[in-house]
Design brief:
This protein is 62% helix and 0% strand. The chain is mostly helical.
């Protein structure tokens, strides 16, 4: 069973334009119909990956939290090929 939490997020015009562009780019790369929600999930996955691969999170507990969250997101990926 898929569990989801509904969030209400407010974006500036510039943030929304960026998210829309990301979704359009992902649609082209993945050759699939991906939404802005898909793009946001892909952006979160990418941010978690960058924290793991490109930055050294100083606190070991936080570093583990980031790793577990990214791995769990990937293990339960429901948004098709939206990963970057």
């Amino acid at each position: 069973m898929d569990s989801r939490t509904e969030l209400r997020v407010q974006f500036t015009d510039q943030e929304l334009a960026g998210l829309t562009a990301l979704a359009a780019g992902l649609r082209g790369v993945a050759e699939a119909d991906l939404s802005e929600e898909d793009a946001l999930v892909a952006a979160v996955e990418m941010a978690l990956t960058r924290l793991i691969d490109d930055f050294e999170v100083p606190d070991p507990t936080t570093r583990e939290q980031v790793q577990v969250a990214r791995d769990d997101l990937r293990a339960h990926w429901i948004r098709g090929s939206a990963g970057i």
